[in-house]
Structures are given as structure tokens and as C-alpha cells.
Write a structure and sequence with these properties.
The complex is a heterodimer of chains A (224) and B (571). With 224 residues, chain A is of the alpha+beta class. Chain A is built from nine helices and four strands. Chain B folds into three domains: 2-114, Ubiquitin-like (UB roll) (Roll); 122-228, Alpha-Beta Plaits (2-Layer Sandwich); 301-458 and 516-537, 3-Layer(aba) Sandwich (Rossmann fold), CATH 3.40.50. Classes of the chains: A alpha+beta (224), B alpha+beta (571).
Chain lengths: 224, 571
């Protein structure tokens, strides 16, 4: 966003891109079709299921080029233009081909204060790419994102629209990259909010062993 | 009856009207952008805010609760409401910006937000002068902007389709265009893409915005984001005059305005008529503006010794009359579905006066062209009018046989092209004198014509057309022709400068005047030259005579037709 404020230019997307998938590849299996039909039946109109179906398509094809959006529209019986509008609205739907792992580094307010940009630049250097780019081997895509809603454990990043990695230090970032290269996704970490700790019997976050900073309540001394 | 109080005045209402439409119907102005009466109500421009309250009542007794002074207590909604989506109910108290400072401030702030990323390029914008955003920013907006950062730059001059160009920076995301393609034309070709500060309407990749009604989004657009590929940067709004008229590319007779500058029709926009076209106009009607400007003849011509020579109107009419007298009973007349009722009626009168015969009119059917909405299979505007005058379509074989047998001594063609329509061949007409009223120099019958009389098109004449549903509609001239003074011809559509300017600051000039005459002026000239007793009385009286003579035209006088047309009794 910082780049956009400095240079607020919206570019026109390619209006006639070459297709990435051939006709044979562009089809849902019977199993997927059953799933989609079930989602459709949950809503008064079929367009209610568009986000579920896009998600399914992204998991199946890896990303959502126009021909996949067209397929989703046809499957749901809703206009292709509408599917395209929904897909472009959400940044979590990948319109471009991404790496196997997408690292979304939060650089919004809290993470920025606790070193979000340091983390981003560290990863940029480590992977040899700029934010928004994919490594040459197609393993990693590094992205700068806005608030992911985990300010309590800033700085943080998210892997491929999936698990959050909290309280990222350089060492943890190195470990994460190694693990991802070895094919191990980070585990989902359950987080206890400070105000709930009394009720829940202390900090029960699952990654508490890694989070030294988080051992005490985040209340400044001078407020006491 | 249920009633509401708007700005201290009580209005009665029936049913469940929406507040914005109710206010517009009662002449209360509420600024708005995204609302359009024929489409769904998304309430996304947030401009039509109002303050709504209801009288407090005691739950148990139902009695009005009153304060110490005995005045009823009004409980207002915690936030301002959008009037477009607010359904009226009995007893509500409503404050618009006229009585509520809060509403006025909210609308002012909202306009400041809308203008944050809007380029201030009104001086070069096509919409300037009739732009809802410009007008409302002047009337209700803040005096300046507090936004001191760079404005967002979005794609400019994007060709969405063959006829529509997008300037995404100007867009305020009211979604009128996407709702039009989703709800009215159902082509589903447009969508709003991206989000937040980056969003704008666009076609999805691999799709062009080429539906046959695409240009309606240009009129719908409350800013200058969607512009016509043809009209873009051609003229400012205030330089043009507009005249209420109808379109003539099909038999629907959609109501329109012709916009004219320097005697050139520059664009065609729809005119609201719930009985015919509501708010819409097909692209073919709009693109037909070129027909009024291009390939127009330079004046009457007469063929002598095999070549066309320019002639005066008097000479040309006299020559036509001589040809008609020579043919006598063998003179054959072809009426026209392009010409107004008045001209066709006068042609019938002329045929009777010189002893000739009207064969019928030339039909212009194009099966498969119609779509059951505003486009029809019939590509001529007045076939129904001809039928109501007792004329039938001419058969090609019949006409060819008649010509081959020598039964035709002269052919008089009104505003049409029998050769181009494939009715006769040029060779068939080589021995027969042909008198032709024509609009364009591309008319193929011109090669065989002996007298060519340029005819005034729908944008230059006064007349009546009957659409396929039997609705008689009159047209007024939008542009001047040579020999007709702009302001003396009282029916002429006037521009702002015509009405309010001095003779020195009129925008129009005398260029591009076409030397043509309406049929109701030429036909009596020919008749008088042929020695017939034929009064030249002007179209208004001719139409009154038609209405009195033909039952199928009962009541269709100019006064009754007005600007909205008159539904004729079924044939």
C-alpha cells in the first residue's frame, strides 16, 4: 500500500491473455461437482456459492486465470463477468500464477512497528526476490499484505492463505523456509487473547514455547 | 390514507413507495447518483441521505407521547438513511437537506469523498454541462477538497467495445452500467473489478462490450466515465441544440433527441417515453446519425441528354409535372415507409389529381433482425402508417411485369430506392421516366432517375410516423435546411444560445445546410406545376385532414400527439 500511495497508478489488466489450461484440463470431477451442487443448495441463488467454488478451483488449478473463472461461471450457471468481479475483489484469490508457497508478510501498523518491513526485507534478501515476485525455481512467492488480524503476535506472516506464523524472528524465518523447502507446512497455532487468560487458566496458545516475548501480559509498567 | 411529513409538509401516499422516487415525483430535489427508476436499488453512492423519524407512541395505549410543551416526541433513526432504499410508512417524519443541517453536512462530506479521486477535467469532459456530479458538486458540495495526496490514476480511454470508451478515473462506482447489463439488457458483459480505491467497471478478459444496446450506459453514467467512441470530444453540450424526435432505423419509433451543431447531427440520445422505449435506445438508432450528414444531395437535378444537371426547384418540379402529364393514367406512384404519413397522403392526392395510380409502398423487412424489444424486423419507420392509409407492400414480380408490359408510363418514387431494395433492375427503368425523391446520393435508383428531388430526412422535416404498435408520433426538425430559417421555422429545436443568446453569440452557423425540401412542400409544387388544384397548407393541416378522413388515424392531430405520441385505434 505504501508503494501505491507514492505512485497511485492502477494498471489495466491484460484483456486478452493467452490461456494457461487446455480444454481437457478445464473440467470439474464428479466428486467436485457434487460438492458444488451441495454448496449451491445452501443458498437461495447459485451465486451464493461462488466463493466456495472459486476456492475449490484455486486448490485444483493453483490459480484462477480467466478460463478457470469461465468454468466456474458455467458450473454455477452465473455470468462469467460476475465471477471475474468477485475473483478480482479478493486478494486471496490468485489471478496470476504463484509459487508453491506464498508468503504474505504483514506490514500493516502493528507489524510495521515490530519489524514487519525488516522481516519482509530479510526474506527478500534471503530468497533473492522483491516483494510481489516469485523465485526462479517456483517455490516461493513473497507478498506484502495489509493487516491479517494477528496484531497481538506481530510481526507475523501467513503461508499460502493457510496457517499464520506468529512472532517471526530471523531465526524462525530461516527455520520456516527450511521446513517449507522440505515440504513441511507450519502447524496451525491457537492463540489465547490476554484478556481471556484468567478465564482459560493462563496463556494456552499452542506455540507458547516459541514466544518468549509473549510470556507476560502486554501492559506497560507506567500505566500501573 | 397514509401520510408522511417531509420538511414540515404533509403528503398522502398509497402503497409502499420508495422515498426518493416519491420526492422526485413531488418535485422535492434530493441529490443522487446511483438510483435509477427502472433498475434495482443498491444504495451505494450514499448521496441521497435523509433523516427519518417516527412519532413515539405509548406501547400499551398507543397514544402519542408528548414532551412538556405538549409537542409529540419524534424518535429519529440513529443514523441517516438512504432515501432511495427507504420505504415510506405511515406517520414518518422526514427531513431532507432543506430542513436538516445534519443531512446537508452529510451530503457535502459525501461529495468531498466522491471527488477525492475524481479528476477535475471538466473543461475537456464530454459530460460537462449535463453532469450530475458536476451539478451536484456545485449545488451541494464543499468549496474545496482537503485531500492533499496524489489522486489515483486509473486506465483512461479504454475501448470497452466498438462503441463505448471508458475513462476509469472519472468513475464513481455507482454501478448503473453493470446493473443495466445485468438487469435490463441481460448481456452480463460488465462488472466492477478490483476493490476500494482501485475499482472500476470493466469487461472480463476475452469479452468485448458489443451488445446491441451498449450505448445506453453512456446516458446512464452520472459522470463522464463512459463516453461514446464516436461523439467523444466532438462538441460541448451547450454548443448543440436538441430536438425531440423519433428514430427511424426500425419500426419501433423509439423516442429520441437529435443533437445538432452547425447543422450536423452529432449524436442521438433517448427520450423518455414509457409507452414506447422507456429510457432506452438501441445502438443502431444512435449510430444512424451519420445518415443525416453524409452522402446528402446538393439540390434538385434533372437529366438532360443523358446527364444530370442542377436545376432550380421550380424547373425540376415543372419537368416532373411534364413527365407525369405525359404518362397520364400510366403514371405509377410508389409510396414510402420512410416518409411521414403527411407525405404519403399527399402522394396519394397527387396520384389522384394527375390520374395515376399508387402501387403501394416498398417494404424493408429483414427477418431475424428484431429482438422483441426495441429492434424490429421491419427496417422502415412508417410501414404501419402506409398500411393505415390503405397502401399495401409492392410485390417485385408484379411491378416488373407491369413495367415489362409497358403499363407504366412514368414512375414516381417517394423517399425510397426500388433498385437498391431489389424491387426492379436498373435496366428495367431505362425506358421509363423516373421521378425520385431521395435522401442520399448513394440511392441506386438515381442512375435511372430523370428528376431527382432531394428530400428532407426525419431530422429536417415535420411529420407523423406510426410505429408497428400503432402509435402515431410526430417529429420536429432538429436541423435547418437551405431555404428554411432556423428561428422562423417555429418548430425547430433550439439550443441554449438560440433561446438566451444575442444574435452575435449564437454557436450555430450557416455551414452544412443541405438543399432539400420536405415532401409536403415539394409534392404540392409538383401538383401545381401539373396544373392541379392543390393547396399548400403545411403538415399540421394535412395531418388534421388525414385524421378526419381516415378512421385508422382518428384523433391523431398534432395537438393530441404532442411529444409522447398518440395510440391509434386498432386497424
Amino acid at each position: 500500500m505504501a508503494d501505491f500511495i507514492r505512485n497511485p497508478v492502477v494498471t489495466l489488466p491484460d484483456r486478452n491473455p493467452a490461456p494457461h489450461f487446455c480444454e481437457q484440463e478445464l473440467a470439474f470431477t464428479e466428486e467436485e461437482k457434487t460438492k458444488i451442487a451441495r454448496w449451491v443448495s445452501q443458498y437461495p441463488t447459485p451465486d451464493g456459492a461462488v466463493m466456495w467454488t472459486l476456492w475449490l478451483a484455486q486448490e485444483k488449478f493453483g490459480f484462477l486465470p480467466p478460463e478457470v473463472l469461465r468454468l466456474v461461471g458455467e458450473e454455477l450457471g452465473i455470468p462469467y463477468a460476475q465471477v471475474y468481479g468477485v475473483a478480482t475483489f479478493y486478494t486471496q484469490y490468485y489471478k496470476q500464477k504463484k509459487g508453491v508457497c506464498v508468503l504474505d508478510v504483514c506490514t500493516c501498523f502493528s507489524c510495521q512497528f515490530t519489524g514487519g518491513y525488516d522481516l519482509l526485507h530479510y526474506l527478500e534478501e534471503k530468497l533473492g526476490i522483491h516483494a510481489g515476485e516469485t523465485t526462479a525455481d517456483g517455490c516461493f512467492t513473497l507478498q506484502e499484505v495489509e493487516c491479517l488480524g494477528a496484531c497481538g503476535s506481530a510481526p507475523m506472516l501467513q503461508v499460502s492463505n493457510g496457517p499464520f506464523v506468529h512472532c517471526v524472528t530471523r531465526a524462525r524465518a530461516d527455520a520456516l523456509i527450511d521446513a517449507l523447502k522440505a515440504g513441511r507446512m507450519p502447524e496451525f497455532a491457537s492463540v489465547t487473547l490476554p484478556q481471556d487468560e484468567d478465564e482459560l487458566g493462563g496463556n494456552r496458545r499452542t506455540d507458547v514455547a516459541f514466544c518468549e516475548r509473549y510470556a507476560t501480559l502486554p501492559i506497560a509498567k507506567h500505566t500501573r | 390514507m397514509a401520510s408522511v411529513t417531509i420538511d414540515g409538509r404533509t403528503y398522502e401516499f398509497e402503497g409502499r413507495p420508495r422515498l426518493l422516487q416519491f420526492c422526485l415525483d413531488h418535485g422535492i430535489e434530493i441529490p443522487h447518483f446511483c438510483y435509477h427508476p427502472s433498475m434495482s436499488v443498491p444504495a451505494n453512492c450514499r448521496q441521497c441521505l435523509i433523516d427519518v423519524g417516527a412519532l413515539m407512541r405509548n406501547r400499551a395505549t398507543g397514544a402519542l407521547e408528548r414532551d412538556e410543551d405538549g409537542a409529540p416526541i419524534i424518535r429519529y433513526m440513529p443514523k441517516l438513511q438512504t432515501s432511495c432504499s427507504h420505504t415510506l410508512s405511515d406517520g414518518q417524519v422526514i427531513h431532507t437537506r432543506r430542513t436538516s443541517q445534519k443531512v446537508a453536512q452529510a451530503q457535502r462530506d459525501n461529495l468531498e469523498f466522491l471527488l477525492i479521486n475524481h479528476p477535475l477535467d471538466c473543461p475537456i469532459c464530454d459530460q460537462a454541462g449535463m453532469c450530475p456530479l458536476q451539478i451536484q458538486a456545485y449545488k451541494y458540495g464543499p468549496e474545496g477538497s482537503r485531500f492533499e495526496f496524489k489522486k489515483t490514476h486509473k486506465p483512461k480511454k479504454v475501448k470497452l467495445g466498438p462503441r463505448v470508451v471508458l475513462d476509469a478515473e472519472r468513475c464513481i462506482n455507482c454501478t448503473r452500467c453493470t446493473r443495466f447489463t445485468d438487469e435490463i439488457s441481460k448481456s452480463h458483459q460488465l462488472t466492477i473489478i478490483e476493490r476500494g480505491v482501485k475499482n472500476y467497471p470493466m469487461t472480463p478478459p476475452g469479452m468485448t462490450f458489443d451488445e446491441p444496446y451498449s450505448m445506453n450506459v453512456i446516458d446512464l453514467c452520472p459522470v463522464g466515465a463512459l463516453t461514446s467512441a464516436d461523439f467523444r470530444f466532438q462538441a460541448r453540450i451547450w454548443e448543440m441544440s436538441s430536438a425531440p424526435s423519433i428514430t427511424t432505423t426500425n419500426a419501433k419509433g423509439s423516442n429520441c433527441n437529435y443533437w445538432v451543431r452547425d447543422n450536423l447531427v452529432l449524436r442521438v440520445t433517448p427520450r423518455e417515453n414509457p409507452a414506447v422505449n422507456e429510457f432506452w435506445l438501441p445502438d443502431e438508432d444512435r449510430m444512424a446519425y451519420r445518415r443525416f450528414n453524409e452522402d446528402r444531395p446538393e439540390g434538385p437535378q434533372v437529366r438532360t441528354r443523358g446527364a444530370f444537371h442542377a436545376a432550380s426547384w421550380e424547373d425540376a418540379c415543372a419537368y416532373a409535372a411534364r413527365l407525369l402529364r405525359g404518362a397520364g393514367k400510366r403514371a405509377l406512384f410508389l409510396a414510402s415507409a420512410h416518409a411521414p404519413v403527411e407525405d404519403n397522403y399527399l402522394l396519394i392526392r397527387l396520384a389522384a389529381a394527375v390520374g395515376g395510380r399508387v402501387a403501394g409502398f416498398i417494404e424493408h423487412m429483414e427477418p431475424g433482425h428484431g429482438d422483441g424489444w426495441l429492434r424490429t424486423d421491419d427496417r422502415a419507420p412508417n410501414s404501419e402508417g402506409c398500411r393505415r392509409l390503405g397502401l399495401a407492400p409492392v410485390g417485385a414480380e408484379m411491378l416488373r411485369e407491369e413495367i415489362a408490359s409497358g403499363a407504366v408510363g412514368a414512375l414516381y418514387v417517394l423517399d425510397d430506392d426500388p433498385v437498391g431494395a431489389g424491387l426492379v433492375r436498373s435496366e428495367d427503368l431505362s425506358d421509363i421516366p423516373v421521378i425520385l425523391h431521395h435522401y442520399h446520393t448513394t440511392n441506386e435508383t438515381l442512375l435511372s432517375a430523370d428528376v431527382a428531388l432531394p428530400s428532407a430526412t426525419v431530422a429536417e422535416t415535420i411529420g407523423t410516423y406510426v410505429n408497428e404498435d400503432g402509435r402515431a408520433q410526430r417529429v420536429v426538425p432538429a436541423k435547418a435546411v437551405r431555404g428554411a430559417h432556423r428561428t422562423l421555422m417555429m418548430q425547430m429545436g433550439l439550443s441554449r444560445a438560440d433561446r438566451h443568446g444575442t444574435p452575435f453569440d449564437r454557436w450555430h452557423n450557416e455551414s452544412n445546410l443541405i438543399n432539400c425540401k420536405p415532401g409536403w412542400e415539394v409534392l404540392p409544387m409538383v401538383a401545381r406545376a401539373a396544373g392541379c388544384d392543390f393547396m399548400d397548407r403545411g403538415p399540421r393541416k394535412v395531418m388534421r385532414e388525414v385524421a378526419d378522413t381516415f378512421e385508422a388515424f382518428a384523433g391523431a392531430t398534432y395537438k393530441v400527439m404532442g411529444l409522447g405520441g398518440h395510440s391509434l385505434p386498432p386497424r
